[in-house]
Design goal:
Radius of gyration of chain A: 22 Å
Oligomer: homotetramer
Shape of chain A: globular
Number of domains of chain A: 2
Number of helices of chain A: 9
Helix content of chain A: 25-40%
CATH topology of the largest domain in chain A: Dihydrodipicolinate Reductase, domain 2
Largest interface: A-B, 56 and 56 residues
Strand content of chain A: 25-35%
């Protein structure tokens, strides 16, 4: 498992920046990867960095980002610091010629994220959004099924992510949790998430100063709809996404390890409609399919292990990562429109993409 | 079970009007009730009426509503006909001096429903909304727990009612399914549902001419929020309501017969806030309770049996039923605001109560 | 649904004998069947009979079995009386030339059951064991899958049927509940249940005078094993059967209406064994398949409706019913061996089949 | 969490012997414990030892058990080597004056285990059975509830532990899995497991040369019964224990992290029995309680963390550990009786306790 004999290319060298909540997971996965040498753990807090380093077999630590970026032996950095620091750290890393993967949210503002994307492109560097959930076996399978046309055209996406959660000091529940749902939806829909407006409804019934309960509604192309429910105040934990299509419907229940993904060959068929005039639409023949359910076997690889492999492949193949900067920007564009909708009392608010970077 | 020896009052006599989907259930429960004699099954379609009559032991049938209403031996009628016919039938029944219980939705328009309520009051008759779900043991228990303060102040209500459903010829998914959720929320919240605006988002991705997927969001008093998700296109069936309170949170999972109602003594405590100024609010001390879960035992009575008993009691005690006309109107007021919001592209729309009848 | 237009043969006429717990279900299904006319409800208690008759639209009642059996217009009787009365009633019915279906357990003793089977055969009449569970869509599908070889050779059957149950006055938990499991196993295994010995372990920790908790273990041919757990004292309800095969394994969870039957393409493969000598067996190459899970769509027909159809077909086609008297005897043979094992302190006890009637 | 500031006593020093499957978990927990200094990882395979050492921050390694035992600075050893090596390693460690905790099964033979217990007692050393499951928050809570009388007298214990499992080269499914169930039952029952006989039924339908499916049945004192189902061939994973008592019944579902332990205030009451003569017993008044369900909040500590704390406390307080050598012997006595029963074709086999060591 831990044997590093598979890779033929020379290993890439990575530094992990940020040794807080997420950094240890990055460190562990880079350390175990056949593609990577974990070169350094960087954090202003040396004790924190050391604890992470100890757990992966005594990697060097550094308290200086400049030092890490100045090291010519380092190819890439993985950034797991607070959102507001993403822009300066990423810009410095890109300036130093390093490839970058950065934790969600990609940036604290789409405008600053777009600058990061432009710079990476100008410098010919990989800038990856570490949308970790996209690399779970479940989401990779969902993307594959939709791409293969197994669901048909997508009719709706309904995502629920609720649990008793820490009330974050700096962000509301939308910015804390919805990036997961948005990045997943963006990843599995063939053209990415293409909402042109967002309606956001939030509630702060405890008076914390920020939304603790949130609902996002987005019309998608072709009359489809996406909806996300995020909630910090629910004592019952639900992580479920239903993706309805014209041919089949898929349910992803992330808390059911024995059957995370189910594909239902059931649904509503609307036949004879192509010939129907507008006034005939009520007479359209509707029928129901009640077919089998099928649960694909999923690999048991860890998402971050897949992410580190993708990061290495993108660098070696000189291509965009599957979750590239553009996907990071699309997620930010929805979050910013959600903020606009909240400010407008819940009225739908247009989604503005500052820089529509082409997806690879 | 079926023995009719409990009741001491003389039995009331009821006619069931409408022998379609719901009428047989009404017939069966009135027939089995110690409070009622089932006098007649009335339907324009004699065969349909006869089949219902046969299953309850040979009750008389009638094809004429006038005949039924003219019978002085009949005290009350239970109406299970299409929504657009509720107003004329109810008005005729009230004019004939009959007490009335009427299936959801109470009427097809709030204005016409208000006329029914006014007439019943003027005539001193009971006019009950047959909000059947409110009489399930689960909902009765939820109402009781909230009234006793077990949940504290209500912070949020999130209701999901999704399943593969028949696309109705005349109503959209909001009018078909949301009356259940709205009537339940209205029933369990101490002051009834008090939303002043509603945002509705619908989708019709199959092009049926009406919303098949719907989301309703309503701010409640005190910063709380209610949200309802109804969906005809989901192959996976969910009927779940989460009610969060300052003290405890309740989850009602109607498809888990072994534990329908769970009360979680978990949540977020926000302490020291009363002293805090607005700018201090981020520093408010937040703590988490991780206490026990408790699932109250529920009676195993059928909801309609409880409904028929309540209808009889209201008549005998000359009082409003627990689900009275006013509750029917409140549900209609939300549905009409939802229609307004849909027409306004999802912007929040004010709730207008034409006649705010006092709840008993 | 209720329309009786499908059948072309003239309808058969049936009397239901016994109007207690099970009789009303029989009456309802025969009344709704296109194959049958429900001719009479027979019970010593006229009130009880009348209540059943009323619910199916006013069928005649009788307090006299002799009267029913003497009626030449009656083709068949369905018997739902206490087990100890099965033998005399069935023998009388067969003597009167009636076809018979009889509730489980088939008889109170295998010896008496065998006499019933012999008499039916001698008289050219259908004698059916009403093993109702065998006619559920789930069990019919399981039988079909195993017959088609989808599971490969059967390795084990593990059945759990536990719930808070009424402590029966006359039978222990083995005779009350295990007939369900045994009849199902007999029905789905290609050659019927072929155990040659049974070990039974019971417990009566409340001192009721009979086992309230029971375990049955039976070696099956080919090194396979069947095990049944029945329990009246469990507050949690489980009805689950796992059937492991060399190719796939099937789980039937009867309390999960959304996915009752799941087929797992997972398991252990033992390769290269055929060439192996006894001493090599530890070196046999073992591998694991981790394939997909598949849940077949199931019809939504009621089991008793399928049973009444099968009863009619067997009569018309002059053949044994799928759950014939022989299957009833096999179930009794296991129950009697279980009694022997209990008497022997749990030691395995041989299964004796008094009359091995050939299965059609 | 990782801060080692709580402990006031000087830390004890431990060596972990065996760096295979379980050793890394021991190493991680001893390293994180405020009670312990992890002094050395010992394994014949230096690479394996080094990998474990690396993951806990660079602890020394050794390939020589003698060297480890000769080190006077080491107070204790934790042994995670194959079962057949437990006896020689434990005996050597005790001879060297080290306290010992040893992985399950305690030894490969009760006789050898008893020698270990005698030696530890003679030398005044702690010899602990690392029955890890007993230190999960769930099992600790179950023990506490039973000890407090919340369940009343125990009527039955039914344990299921089935999953697709590796077919072990040296042990059958009884010796591989049942030690978990047996050690748990021994831990939670007030007097420990007191079965006087065991019936074991195994099956090896794949011809692997050992039982892959196993059932154990044990009468307990007072008419109660314990039953264990272990299975390597089940593609569906179940880890569930039901413990029925005269007052309440408890269900532990280890795969339901949101509600692992449920206490049902439901059951059967047998009243008036004390006055009843034997012949009256059928007339005993039986009633059913259908009360609430309650799920206690559980701590989220790791079992091994609790185990290391208990090991340290037992050493410091010079007392037996909660899972002492005697409990290890009781588990072995059942496993050996099970082997006897298997050899006797499933007939109940007496449990022989070679050395009934008093439980602390």
């Amino acid at each position: 498992m831990n044997e590093k004999t598979i890779s033929v290319s020379p290993r890439l060298r990575v530094g992990v920046v940020g040794a807080g909540y997420w950094g240890p997971n990055l460190a562990r996965n880079f350390a175990a990867s056949p593609d990577w040498d974990l070169a350094v753990i960087c954090d202003l807090d040396a004790d924190r960095a050391q604890r992470v380093a100890d757990r992966v077999g005594g990697v060097p630590i550094s308290q200086s980002l400049d030092e890490v970026l100045a090291d010519p032996a380092i190819d890439a950095v993985a950034i797991a610091t607070p959102a507001r620091t993403h822009h300066p750290i990423v810009m410095a890393a890109l300036a130093a010629g390093k490839h970058v993967t950065v934790e969600k949210p990609f940036a604290d503002e789409q405008r600053r994220g777009a600058e990061m994307v432009d710079t990476a492109r100008a410098n010919g560097l990989v800038l990856m959004a570490d949308h970790t959930y996209c690399y779970t076996p479940a989401v990779l399978k969902i993307r594959e099924l939709i791409a293969a046309g197994d669901l048909g055209d997508i009719l709706f996406v309904d995502s629920v992510r609720i649990n008793l959660g820490l009330i974050q000091p700096d962000v509301d529940v939308f910015w804390d949790l919805a990036p997961h749902d948005l990045s997943i939806i963006d990843f599995v829909l063939p053209g990415g998430i293409d909402a042109t407006s967002v309606a956001a409804h939030g509630a702060d019934p405890l008076g914390t100063g920020k939304s603790c309960i949130g609902y996002l509604t987005m019309p998608l192309s072709g009359g489809a709809i996406a909806h996300i429910h995020v909630n910090w105040l629910s004592p019952t934990k639900i992580r479920q996404m239903v993706i309805g299509g014209t041919k089949r419907t898929l349910v992803w229940d992330d808390l059911n390890p024995q059957q995370r993904v189910s594909v239902y060959d059931r649904g509503v068929d609307l036949a004879g409609q192509s010939q129907a005039t507008a006034s005939d639409v009520h007479a359209a023949r509707i029928s129901y399919r009640l077919g089998d359910t099928w649960a694909p076997a999923l690999a048991e690889t860890e998402a971050l292990s897949n992410m580190t492999a993708e990061f290495a492949s993108a660098i070696r193949e000189k291509r965009q990562a599957r979750t590239d900067g553009a996907s990071g920007l699309r997620v930010l564009s929805i979050l910013e429109a959600a903020k606009g909708s909240l400010g407008a009392g819940g009225a739908p608010y247009p989604v503005e993409i500052l820089e529509r970077v082409e997806q690879s």
